[in-house]
């Protein structure tokens, strides 16, 4: 008997609940779809039928197909019809219709710890009205797996975008700047993280002027963000096309090229591998066989596995401050082990730090509060931590930390609250670093583990 994706997901979740253990491998899928949600008076998108009705049909198909993370573009004035018929438990709030919103929204089976909307620095009206709405990109750190006790979790950074359209010189320049703006944020926010970017790039590799998408590829730009395009990987044997082969709608196969792209990369905490790529236009048709959007939806199946030398806990705190990560530093050290811990705190948790055995210092947060420290012995490991959070000035942040070693010694800083979580390193592992968001204090924090 073949089980539905929803039943398979429920069984997998039940097995995790039974053992209170985090999965170390699994699968998820993504879909990118421009839903043609501009008001009909502005753009009919060459799609027959009523846009409100078509949008409701799109939403019902999103719910039907068991899609895990859906990025939508042009989700403007018919947004409510999609959300009315969709059933995904996690969804972004609309930023508004034309001319107020970006048209970028996400539906997901997984929760996230941060969500941001960023407007493009550059736009062009040379070929249309790209500056009419605040187009740009969104960022979210999505939990694709997590246990019941929060001690370990698996996160992937997802970006959704809609770049400038058109082929005039100003359009090309704006589009290149758009893509470069995203890669700049990836280098800042997603250090050491696995990343998936999918959206409407308005770009084709076969257009010689669309060079920014080539620069995203690790095979084309070793100094870039290190991404792979699953269409190039799975459909073209790794060869980037130079001759144009434009898809029909719906596409008759997967060898042709559309402007909607998917890029991904692995990180030390999680390895990603694209397993299936297809254009999904054939599953998004009206009852009479007409298309629901002027874009072919793009579908990718991914497999994932946890890192063999580094993993992380879930997060505690609030999505404020600047993202930081010790993962890139730790990934370059063969067997990291803390030699000393140091925390700063008073009424709240101001800072965290540890010194590794090779002298590397990992420090985050501010300099206020009282510092306390603990030196660890050669055979002593940091194996458990407790974080307590609360609200300050309307923002959730960490107020307290308590660390326990394998020898039962402890270190604490800050002020306890009633909202506390304990994080335990997996058997045979230890806490060796941090991931989170900070400013003058520790707004959000997770722990990085490595084998003892």
TrEMBL record:
One of its GO terms (cellular component) is cytoplasm. The keyword Hydrolase applies. Residues 321-451 form the Jacalin-type lectin domain. GO terms for molecular function: endonuclease activity; phosphatase activity; sphingomyelin phosphodiesterase activity. Residues 1-22 form the signal peptide. InterPro entries: Endo/exonu/phosph_ase_sf, IPPc, Jacalin-like_lectin_dom, Jacalin-like_lectin_dom_sf, Sph/SMPD2-like. It comes from the Eukaryota. CDD domains: Jacalin_EEP. Keywords: Endonuclease, Hydrolase, Nuclease, Signal. The keyword Nuclease applies. Gene3D superfamilies: Endonuclease/exonuclease/phosphatase (3.60.10.10), Jacalin-like lectin domain (2.100.10.30). GO terms for biological process: phosphatidylinositol dephosphorylation. This is Endonuclease/exonuclease/phosphatase. It comes from Chaetomium fimeti.
């Amino acid at each position: 008997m073949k089980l539905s994706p929803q039943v398979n997901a429920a069984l997998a979740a039940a097995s995790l609940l039974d053992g209170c253990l985090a999965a170390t491998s699994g699968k998820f899928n993504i879909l990118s779809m421009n839903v043609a949600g501009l008001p009909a008076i502005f753009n009919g998108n060459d799609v027959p039928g009523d846009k409100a009705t078509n949008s409701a049909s799109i939403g019902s198909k999103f719910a039907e197909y068991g899609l895990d993370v859906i990025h939508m573009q042009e989700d403007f004035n018919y947004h409510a019809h999609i959300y009315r018929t969709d059933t995904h438990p996690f969804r972004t709030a609309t930023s508004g219709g034309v001319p107020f919103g970006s048209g970028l929204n996400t539906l997901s089976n997984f929760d996230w710890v941060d969500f941001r909307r960023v407007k493009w620095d550059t736009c062009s009206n040379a070929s249309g009205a790209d500056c009419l709405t605040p187009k740009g990109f969104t960022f979210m750190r999505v939990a694709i797996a997590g246990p019941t006790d929060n001690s370990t979790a698996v996160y992937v950074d997802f970006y959704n975008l809609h770049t400038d359209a058109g082929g005039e010189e100003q359009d090309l320049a704006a589009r290149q700047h758009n893509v470069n703006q995203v890669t700049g944020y990836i280098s800042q926010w997603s250090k050491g993280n696995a990343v998936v970017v999918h959206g409407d790039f308005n770009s084709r590799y076969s257009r010689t002027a669309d060079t920014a998408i080539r620069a995203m590829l690790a095979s084309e730009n070793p100094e870039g963000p290190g991404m792979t395009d699953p269409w190039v990987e799975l459909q073209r044997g790794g060869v980037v096309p130079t001759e144009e082969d434009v898809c029909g709608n719906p596409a008759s196969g997967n060898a042709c090229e559309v402007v909607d792209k998917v890029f991904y990369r692995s990180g030390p905490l999680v390895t990603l591998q694209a397993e299936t790529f297809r254009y999904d236009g054939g599953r998004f048709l009206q009852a009479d066989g007409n298309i629901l959007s002027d874009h072919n939806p793009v579908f990718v199946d991914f497999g994932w596995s946890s890192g063999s030398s580094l993993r992380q806990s879930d997060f505690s705190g609030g999505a404020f401050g600047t993202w930081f990560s010790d993962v890139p530093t730790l990934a370059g050290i063969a067997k990291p082990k803390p030699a000393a811990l140091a925390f700063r705190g008073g009424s709240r948790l101001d800072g965290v730090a540890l010194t590794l055995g090779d002298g590397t210092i990992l420090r985050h947060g501010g300099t206020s509060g009282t510092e306390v420290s603990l030196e660890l012995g050669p055979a002593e490991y940091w194996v458990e931590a407790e974080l307590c959070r609360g609200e300050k000035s309307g923002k959730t942040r960490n107020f307290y930390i308590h660390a326990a070693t394998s020898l039962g010694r402890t270190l604490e800083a800050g002020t306890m609250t009633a909202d506390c979580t304990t994080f335990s390193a997996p058997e045979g592992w230890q806490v060796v670093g941090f991931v989170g968001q900070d400013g003058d204090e520790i707004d959000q924090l997770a722990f990085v583990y490595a084998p003892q």
